[in-house]
């Protein structure tokens, strides 16, 4: 994959051949490590909306903010573009991927279907270790407050919340399905941070999470899937009702 600079603070992608090796495969180990670290930092800032949707990513600003050279920065942005978190515009450079009401609905509907399928399969295949894991993840999550005193989402709660939902479908046995579920969870995570002020804070998240676990332990797949999908749908409906414009 070859990159041609347009100006000092932007870059464009030259269409690669199908047999091209990724740049990360060609870089020395030290540079690969630096690029991966930069990729993780940029990705975290995009998902947490520290880098706002649709904002232009100027090389000169990013180099100063992340203390990075051009080569690892360019490679990190390329990787983010391939993941859909960054958009590469011809002759304009990079922007953070935009957001929209339509995409939020799309993410939620797709997530309900895929995680519902994965949960149903996990209930069929899960053993005692899976049961113990989802119980443990729920217990850890229920012990942590959702919000900080400042009103922001608690980072440890977020980590435990993600672990809880992953544990639910972890026994489905399909690696690709698990991967797609995690991608959708990331995208939903970005919207939740972006629309934090619109989140309904009166909800009893603990009871919702517990009900899903209990249905899974009873091996009642239909009930568990219905509760999971209702859990996600309620969040999205609340966001859409309280947010008149998104984009």
Describe the protein.
This protein is mainly alpha-helical and 247 residues long. The chain has 2 domains: 2-96, Winged helix-like DNA-binding domain superfamily/Winged helix DNA-binding domain (Arc Repressor Mutant, subunit A); 101-242, Four Helix Bundle (Hemerythrin (Met), subunit A). The protein is built from 10 helices and 5 strands. The chain has helices at 23-26, 29-47, 59-66, 70-82, 101-125, 128-142, 155-169, 175-194, 205-217, 221-242, and strands at 2-7, 10-14, 56-57, 86-89, 93-96. It has a 3-stranded antiparallel β-sheet. A hairpin with a 3-residue loop joins strand 4 (86-89) and strand 5 (93-96). The longest helix has 25 residues, at 101-125. The protein starts with a strand and ends in a 5-residue tail after the last helix.
Summarize the structure in short.
The chain has about 250 residues and is mainly alpha-helical. It is about 60% helix and about 10% strand. The protein has helices spanning about 25, 30-45, 60-65, 70-80, 100-125, 130-140, 155-170, 175-195, 205-215, 220-240; strands at about 1-5, 10-15, 55, 85-90, 95.
């Amino acid at each position: 994959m070859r990159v041609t600079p347009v100006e000092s603070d932007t870059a464009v992608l030259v269409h690669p051949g199908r047999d091209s090796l990724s740049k990360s495969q060609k870089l020395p180990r030290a540079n690969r490590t630096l690029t991966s670290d930069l990729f993780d930092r940029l990705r975290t800032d995009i998902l947490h909306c520290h880098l706002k949707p649709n904002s232009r990513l100027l090389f000169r600003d990013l180099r100063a903010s992340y203390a990075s050279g051009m080569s690892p920065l360019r490679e990190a942005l390329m990787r983010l573009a391939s993941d859909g978190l960054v958009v590469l515009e011809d002759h304009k450079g990079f922007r953070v991927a935009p957001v929209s009401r339509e995409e939020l609905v799309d993410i939620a509907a797709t997530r309900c279907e895929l995680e519902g399928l994965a949960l149903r399969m996990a209930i069929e295949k899960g053993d005692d270790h899976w049961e113990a894991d989802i119980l443990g993840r729920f217990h850890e999550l229920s012990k942590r407050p959702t919000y900080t005193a400042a009103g922001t989402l608690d980072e440890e709660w977020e980590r435990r919340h993600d672990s809880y939902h992953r544990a639910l479908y972890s026994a489905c046995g399909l690696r690709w399905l698990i991967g797609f579920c995690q991608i959708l969870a990331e995208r939903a995570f970005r919207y939740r941070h972006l629309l934090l002020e619109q989140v309904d804070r009166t909800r009893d998240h603990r009871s919702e999470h517990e009900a899903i676990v209990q249905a899974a332990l009873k091996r009642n797949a239909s009930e568990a899937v219905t509760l999971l999908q209702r859990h996600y749908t309620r969040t999205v409906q609340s966001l859409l009702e309280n947010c008149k414009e998104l984009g």
